[in-house]
Amino acid sequence: MSRQLTLRRLAHHYAPSKFLNEAAYKSNKKLGDQFIQQYETKVHHSEKITGTWKKLTYLVALPAILLTAIPVGKVELEHAHHREHARHLSDDEWPQQYDYQNIRNKPFFWGDGDKTLFWNSDINRHVQKD
Fold first, then answer.
1. Residue 55 CA to chain centroid, in angstroms?
2. Is residue 126 within 8 Å of residue 120, measured between CB atoms?
3. Cα–Cα nearest to 119, from 99, 100, 102
4. Cβ atoms of residues 115 and 128 within 8 Å
5. 108 and 116 Cβ atoms separated by less than 8 Å
6. 32-45: per-residue pLDDT in tens?
7. Could you write out the DSSP letters of every residue in 12-79?
8. For the whole model, what pTM was predicted?
């Protein structure tokens, strides 16, 4: 008996809804066609502008990068040659150290305490003349 009451009580959950015969949202053909038209217009514009930017990249940006890379590369090669020469200079041949250069009030807490964090032994020197 209790099983029948339970089934009867829950029967309303399994009955078909009266709203199943109707669409949940009534479509408007005119608005749908208008949306599709706007979407296709945006797609066409996107394809067109993408092509423009590709052409701009390949025809303007890449040649500009190449034309500026050549002289910069030459300058960097000269700079590398100069650094290689400076690497082999003795401390006496090294340019004069002024009072405001390489000031050390207390030692750094890394390494030997004399070199900065980004110390490059080929470029930086701390010539101490006593």
1. 23
2. no
3. 102
4. no
5. yes
6. 999 999 999 999 99
7. GGTSPPGGGGS-SS---HHHHHHHHHHHHHHHHHHHHHHHHHHHHIIIIIHHHHHHHHHHHHHHHHHH
8. 0.47
